[in-house]
Amino acid sequence: MRLLLVEDDEMIAETVLDSMRREGHAVDWARDGREAELSLDNDVYDLVLLDLGLPKKDGIEVLNGYRRKGGEAAVLILTARDSVTDRIAGLDAGADDYLIKPFDLDELAARTRAMLRRRTGQKQPVYTHSGLSLDPAAHEVTKDGESVALVPREFALLRVLIEQPARVFTKAELEERMYGWGEEVGSNAIEVHVHSLRRKIGTDQIVTVRGVGYRLKRPE
């Protein structure tokens, strides 16, 4: 899933970015309200993690404008404003949930998973294909019923492929789905992740479509 973090505190932002990326999400970071508006105009996000006390434009204004334009991404407010009035204002502006700073990263991850499940309309979104099973909520993968241990990038790659198993994804598309702004992407990063993932789930599970990209094998 692609997330937008809107946070002006660099220390908090770096911590949240690291946590969300370990969950397998691609995360972009906007440092102020104006940058957040420009980012949201792209309409590519599944979830927005939004601070309220932002430079250049307040988070509530950003949220109001986003919803007025028809923005449908889930929004989780992360803020030190803990009054009931502030919480009501955030929810009335179109937020889906509210988390008070300082917060526990495990709770943030759990709320993020819950909100993404609600947005997809699935209580238990489990993807299956050719003996593979991927559970985003539990962050678990099995092959023929046996658990497979994947690092976050491998998990993110498999999730992209298994959500649309018949589709061929180009290298550029995979990079866009798996990495956020500012993350360094090596020229052969996707090839390395594909090779590593093949070793764990089977060399025949990921098909190379020469000159185009990758897809999962067709069911037999």
From TrEMBL:
<dbReference type="InterPro" id="IPR036388">
    <property type="entry name" value="WH-like_DNA-bd_sf"/>
</dbReference>
<dbReference type="InterPro" id="IPR001867">
    <property type="entry name" value="OmpR/PhoB-type_DNA-bd"/>
</dbReference>
<feature type="DNA-binding region" description="OmpR/PhoB-type">
    <location>
        <begin position="124"/>
        <end position="218"/>
    </location>
</feature>
<feature type="domain" description="OmpR/PhoB-type">
    <location>
        <begin position="124"/>
        <end position="218"/>
    </location>
</feature>
<keyword id="KW-0238">DNA-binding</keyword>
<dbReference type="InterPro" id="IPR001789">
    <property type="entry name" value="Sig_transdc_resp-reg_receiver"/>
</dbReference>
<keyword id="KW-0804">Transcription</keyword>
<dbReference type="Pfam" id="PF00072">
    <property type="entry name" value="Response_reg"/>
</dbReference>
<protein>
    <submittedName>
        <fullName>Transcriptional regulatory protein QseB</fullName>
    </submittedName>
</protein>
<dbReference type="InterPro" id="IPR011006">
    <property type="entry name" value="CheY-like_superfamily"/>
</dbReference>
<feature type="modified residue" description="4-aspartylphosphate">
    <location>
        <position position="51"/>
    </location>
</feature>
<feature type="domain" description="Response regulatory">
    <location>
        <begin position="2"/>
        <end position="116"/>
    </location>
</feature>
<keyword id="KW-0805">Transcription regulation</keyword>
<dbReference type="InterPro" id="IPR039420">
    <property type="entry name" value="WalR-like"/>
</dbReference>
<dbReference type="Pfam" id="PF00486">
    <property type="entry name" value="Trans_reg_C"/>
</dbReference>
<keyword id="KW-0597">Phosphoprotein</keyword>
